[in-house]
Amino acid sequence: MELRRLDPSEAERLRALRLRSLRADPLVFGGSYDESAARPLSVWERQVADLPTWVVSDGDADVGMVRIAPHAEGGGELISLWVAPEARGRGVGERLVHAVLAWADGPVVLEVRASNGPAIDLYERLGFTLDAETEGTQRWVRATRSGAGAPR
Ligand SMILES: CC(C)(COP(=O)(O)OP(=O)(O)OC[C@H]1O[C@@H](n2cnc3c(N)ncnc32)[C@H](O)[C@@H]1OP(=O)(O)O)[C@@H](O)C(=O)NCCC(=O)NCCS
């Protein structure tokens, strides 16, 4: 299994993986498959340039991804974390979250459905703490090397 950051020329790779995740697990993400599938490649090109994105591949197959939406004041929001069902339970999710934490220069926040046990277990194990819960959505936060806590 190899983890690496996508470069700006890899928009098609991002599109394939993100669409697969939205189709496989529609209830855990904010975005919808239909809306994303209708986007032209130029939108994915902009996303891969603007949002640092990491993938894990197993041979020729991409099996996981994560990205961060950076905040202007440092740190950012961890988004789009997904591991293909055939690759779960082998530490891929953990490696992806660590990639975001190593990149961030301030607190990392994320939102997760309160019903998403596997994801919450992972975040808790990796040192995130529950910050707030509203209407079934939890917000978790973790300081990084220069982050002192939750952003204001
Ligand atoms: C949540 C998700 C990303 C976790 O990915 P994952 O690759 O299975 O995560 P990990 O393997 O790092 O950890 C999961 C479990 O496997 C265990 N594990 C890790 N490495 C292992 C190994 N080598 N052998 C056996 N088990 C292992 C971990 O201890 C962990 O157990 P836990 O349930 O007690 O916490 C994945 O389930 C997923 O994509 N879900 C759907 C999308 C989603 O919910 N995304 C998050 C939206 S907020």
Overview of this protein structure:
- The protein is of the alpha+beta class and 152 residues long.
- Helices cover 33% and strands 30% of the residues.
- The chain is built from five helices and seven strands, in the order E-H-H-H-E-E-E-H-E-H-E-E.
- It has helices at 11-24, 33-37, 41-50, 92-103, 117-125; strands at 2-5, 53-58, 61-70, 76-83, 108-113, 129-134, 137-142.
- Strands 1-2-3-4-5-7-6 form a seven-stranded mixed β-sheet, sandwiched between helices.
- Strand 3 (61-70) and strand 4 (76-83) form a beta hairpin.
- Coenzyme A (COA) is lined by residues 25, 28, 81-83, 88-94, 112, 116, 118-119, 121-122, 125.
List the SSEs and their pairings.
Blueprint: E1 2-5, H1 11-24, H2 33-37, H3 41-50, E2 53-58, E3 61-70, E4 76-83, H4 92-103, E5 108-113, H5 117-125, E6 129-134, E7 137-142
Parallel strand pairs: 4-5
Antiparallel strand pairs: 1-2, 2-3, 3-4, 5-7, 6-7
Regions with pLDDT < 50 over 5+ consecutive residues?
147-152
**CATH topology description:** Aminopeptidase
Second rung of CATH, namely the architecture = 3-Layer(aba) Sandwich
Number of domains: 1
Give the strand line-up of the largest sheet: 1-2-3-4-5-7-6
